[in-house]
Input
Amino acid sequence: MSSKKIPDSFVKILKHLDEAPPAEKESCEGANIEKIEGGRNNLIYRVQHEGLDVAVKFTIRDERNRARREYVALSALHSAGIDVAPQALWLDETSYQQPVVVQSWIEGQTLDDIPADRVVWSQLVGHFVAVHALKQSPEFDQVPDAVLGFQSGAHGKKLVLNFADMIPEQARPPNVQPLLRWFVGWTPPSFPPAQLSLCRSDANWRNFIQQQDQLLSVDWENSGWGDPAFEIADLITHPAYEGVGQSDWEFVVDQYAALSNDATAQVRIKTYTIEMLMWWVIRWARYLYEIPLGLDQRLAKRSDDWKPHTERKLALEVERLERTIANL
Output
């Protein structure tokens, strides 16, 4: 399915990118094309052609419907007048080897590291508050639930345990087993359900672009409806923020609760943070189990040191969850 009529000249470019993707930069049909290094699940190009300046993103074909998910989220934000992301232009899920979504190119400086001061942290929190202002409604019925999201403490615990079941018990690393036993016996607090909001469901700082005094974001392929407090827990537990101190996270939570005017945000964030720490322990353990079996396919090639990298990340997450449990 194609979302809109794509100019014939651009169809030729998409066909070329599909059949003979460039490794770096090249020209084709009068267009300037540059490969953009990004995630492992997609191929991204900047294309400048006949007044257009766009990002072309080919996504892996799986049950997430990544290209469509990104297209509908960006379209919903644009319709709601929330100017924090690119504008979706075209979607085609059938004409090429991989689904493709085309969106406006955002000028600006991509964050080159974890936020270093409270000004940037405030901008990051403000970005999430702006996104979460888009509430679930019939007007945006094409937006699905987020790929990952918890809507209560009990719901989160159930999803994490289902996630753990994807690793046979005998294949679970020894340092994971006692944490899972604790998690099974842990009872999360209860709280009233939150109104569902649009969530990015990917807090990696590499997806944020500085533009004047605000942050915009790209890579919406996991987005959808969810409890907005979960998004902050996802931010706090994301491996990309390794090394961020507790005082910064307390600042983020306090800022979010104040700006969102959400009375139960703090207890929900704390609950979901514990559950997401357990989720990440399992996620790294699943990589160690699945990758050697060929069960985790990606469009981009893995680095040769994926295994020691994964083992180090697992050890860090185990330590972080153990420390969190000790402080409960």
User: Anything to note?
Assistant: The two ends are 50 Å apart (CA to CA). Residues 24 and 35 are 5 Å apart (CA to CA). Residues 265-290 form the longest helix (26 residues). The longest strand covers residues 42-49.
